[in-house]
């Protein structure tokens, strides 16, 4: 249920708002390419308010927990 998995629900809403609702895919390959591009942007370039308006990837790389494992 949505209230039990807020992170995924938030991601799905953002994915729909930023990509799916604005595109008409003509082929499966086009959908795969644009989804991969969006995912890279989301994880490496797009600022996230919960992370101090930084993208997630640099935060994960600098995390001491990630470095210790």
Strand tally, please? 0
Q: Nearest-angstrom radius of gyration? A: 14 Å
Sheet with the most strands, sense and barrel status: none
Mean pLDDT equals 81
> How much strand content do the residues show?
under 5%
Helix content: 55-70%
State the low-pLDDT regions, or none: none
Alpha carbon gap, first and last residue: 31 Å
Please trace the helix and strand order, writing H or E for each element.
HHHH
User: Which outline best applies?
Assistant: globular
Count of domains: 1
Explain the overall architecture.
The chain is mostly helical and 69 residues long. The protein is 61% helix and 0% strand. It has 4 helices and no strands. The protein is globular.
Describe the structure in brief.
The chain is mainly alpha-helical. It has helices at 6-18, 28-44, 56-62, 64-68.
